[in-house]
Every structure is written in structure tokens, then in C-alpha cells.
Amino acid sequence: MSANNRVPRQLAAPEPTWFVDTDVVILGSGAAGLSAALALRPVRDVVLVTKDILAAGSTNWAQGGLAAVLDPNDSIELHVQDTLEAGAGLCDESAVRELVSEAPTAIRYLMELGAAFDAGDSSGEIALTREGGHSHNRIVHAGGDQSGAEVQRTLDESVRLAGVQVVERAFGLDVVTGKTANGTRAVAGVRVAMLDSNGGVESVGIVTARAVIIATGGYGQVYASTSNPPAVTGDGIALALRAGVEANDLEFIQFHPTVLWSGPEATGQQALISEAVRGEGAILLDAAGQRVMAGVHPQEDLAPRDVVASAISRRMSEAPAGVDDHVYLDARKIEKFEDRFPSITASCLSAGIDPQHELIPVAPAAHYVCGGVKATLDGATSLQGLYVVGEAACTGVHGANRLASNSLTEGVVAGTRVGRELSWKLPEEVSTVDDDVEGALIDSYHRAALRSAMSRYVGVLRTPDGLTAAARILNTLGANASADVVPTRKAFEATNMLTVAIAVVEAAHTRQESRGCHRRTDFAEPRTDWMRHLSCRIVDGRMEVSA
Ligand code: SIN
Predict the structure, then answer these.
(1) Which CATH number is associated with domain 257-367?
(2) CA of 501 to the centre of ligand 1 (A)
(3) Which residue among 195, 239, 372, 478 has its CA within the 20 to 30 Å range from the CA of 137?
(4) pTM confidence score
């Protein structure tokens, strides 16, 4: 679309002053990164690098839970079919089958590690609830709506007990590459900036390793309104793109239908109102009191997430009763709401809403990246020595729209698989090759303009003019990239956000159809000839998209 699309080829940072060698470096400390560390630790030296504290990523915030077939009346086949149906034709069925088949073992594994999932009323069996797109109750949860926090706590403790070397406040900048004995380009390690408590750079070093695992999550923060915490800025995906690795399906950004609407000017992380609330019987109403989902889909309020988010956006655009920026969730019939959803209750109460007796104002917000760096479920990418797991990866499991609560499950399954693979065998050793690529950064104050352009033009419903406007704004921001910008955590993040945002806009413009969570106003339906993936890749400093 654009004649420009230039992105920095490396993040600018001071020269390295220290060097460390290990077997495997992991970037990121959510479910996927911690599971990988735990599986590797008995056999390999592992350094886990995280730019903040361990629990700063999305895992800790997940409410709904983990999807797995645990009820004898449910079946792997049904979970597979629900995942494929939600994925709108772009899932890789064999990856889905592998994930779904290993999901029950992953739940039992977490329980072995000490995870306390909620039990049902009488039998002591794990309680299972339902979320959008599931044909059966199969969502395991903890603390009512604090499932991710329990997974994070369990894995944090296990990783520390296992003696994994954890380095907090350390930013993975770019991979260092080299050549194998037969001349193949491969990863030799990663350049890391140590940060002070204000996000300034204290020092830069190189961790050499036989494998680098990216587990840095998605990029919800490129939007003005998101359920993701501030740390989720697309760092690993941007790093992989700069390393020349392709990322697929980046246009498929899942908007959660219901975050707590807290006013027209609200920006940043918004409180999630879990889909499990609808799973327990809540319904969506517009400001005129009409049902939003009646007649839209056979599963009504429990339709797949893309369907619900798009129905809400359309209803808001009609401005019923003059309200065009939110709808309402009626959860008043859920008995003992506070016991089942304690953290949602707390968020609502702090906004002055009593969810047991009042309607909850809600709106869609950026939630999950269905695409990512092209990888197998074992994390392998096209670059030897580079592995990607969790939300940062595109394994074909989610297709054009992820099925609810498949993500934490994927993080644990894929993280454990890559750890096991690298325990068995490390990639060949690589000798580093000096590169003369000049780094650049954009200033962190550009983040506001970037987020506002993405939310305004690349949200739930996309128009060609809007995508063109977004590209123009991003390219203008990119023209400010320079080697002279002061390197800080926020500048690294801003540059990574720009890189992924440019890729998203290019892919969204190229895909001339509506499918899953990519909805175009000018091509309102899926098109058979678009039943394929789009790949983004940086070539000579420019983002390119190919089908
Ligand atoms: C939710 O609780 O609604 C979010 C769960 C998910 O994103 O899978």
C-alpha cells in the first residue's frame, strides 16, 4: 500500500560492555516463557530475561481460564471442532489437534505444580464453565476470575524453586546472528539492555546461547484501549521481524467484546469483564434496552468473540438512545456474583457500579493477537536457533480468531514442548559474524499518536480510507526514527510498537475480505480466494507483505 514502510533494522543502544554465555535464553515471563524454563532447567543452563518483573505480562491478568476437555461427556473432537469453527478457516488442523489433545495433561501438570483450580459444588471435581464459541463446559478457572494470576503464581514459584536464573528489568533488543559450520545463518545470542528503575539504560551486554526463545506476548498496547497491561508492546514479534523472520496473520487482532467502559477519554489498560460472565448467563443490551445478540448468531451472547465484538460495534454505530460508544452487560440474574467474580466486582465497584443490581457499561477493546511469528507448536521458526511460543507465535492454532481460553493452555503446552525439544537437543553452535547495521529509535512521546491512529482506523471495523490514513500517520512517525534518540525502555517499546503497527496496517489493507477478527466495511464477507495466510517480513529495512 505504502511507498514508504521503513522500520528500524536494529534498536539503537550503547555498545555492549559485558558478555555472558548460556545454553538457552528466554525472553518473557508469562505462561509460555515460564513453562519453557521449567521444562529446560533440569538439563540446560537457562537465563530468563524479562523487561519488568516476572508477573508484568498478560498471563497474570487472564480471567476466564484454561480450556481443556475434562468432562467425560465432552470430547477432544468437539474441542477441535469449536476451535476450527472460531478460527474461520485459517487454523492448522493438525496443530489444533495436538494442542487440544495435550490440554488435559497441561491442566494436571499445573495442578501437580500446585495450582489450585476451583472445584465444583459437591464432588470436589474441577468446576468447568463455558465461554463464547464452546459447545461444552470446559473452562477451568481459579479464584473465580483470577485464573491467570494462579497460573502465574504457580509457575513463578516453580521456576524460582528450580533455580532458573531470572534477570528482571532487562530488555531483549535484537538477536545476534552468525554462521553454522556449513554456512547457514543462525542465532548466536541476544543483545540485552539492563534497565534502571526509571527505564533508563544502565548497560548493554550480549548473552550468547545456542537457542533464544521469544515468549514476550502480543501487542495490545498499540491500541489506545486494551485489556493488556502496559508491558505488552510487541517486543518479541518486532525483534523476530528485524531478524528477517516472517510473521503471519498479524491483521487478526481479537477485540474482547466486553471491557468495562470508563468514559470516552479512557486510554490504556481497561478492566476486563470476562466472557465467563456471559457463560454464567449475562446478556448484552444496548442503551435502548434491546438485546444486542438476539438473531445475530445461533449461540447469541455466547457466539465466538469476533461475532460479538463486531455486533457490538455495529450496534454502537447506530447510536441507540444516542449512545455510540458503549453497550451494557446485564449480569443481575447471576446469583452471588461477587463470590464467582471477585475481581470483576472490585473493578465495577471502584467505578461506582454494583454489578449484582446495575447494568455494567462495556465496549470492545484490543485483547489478543491471533497471528505472530510463524512457528511450529514446538516453537521452531525459519531461523535456526530462534524459537517463539505463546501469543508471540503464530502456530495455526488460532487461525483468524482464537477460541476463548485456548491461549493460556497454548502457552503451557507450547512452552513445555519447546523446553522438552531443547532439552533433548540443542541447535548447532554458531560463530558470530559482525554486522554493520545502524540502529535507530523513535521517541516515546510518539506512542500516543500511534495508539490513537490504530484505535481510530484499525479497530474492529476497518475502512480502506482509514487504513490509508493510519499508514500515512505511521510512516510519518517512522520518518522520525534516528540513532540520536536517547535509548530508554519506552523508546525501545515505541520503536517495537511502530514496527508491528506498520505490519498490521499493511496486512489489514492487503486482506480484501472480512474473516474472523479482521472486518472490512468494503468487503463485508469472507472470500474463498482469501482462505490463506499473509506473511509480513522486513526486507532491506521495509515491511513487505506477501500472500
Ligand atoms: C475472558 O475471560 O473473557 C478472557 C479469556 C480469554 O481471553 O481467553
Answers:
(1) 3.90.700.10
(2) 23
(3) 372
(4) 0.96
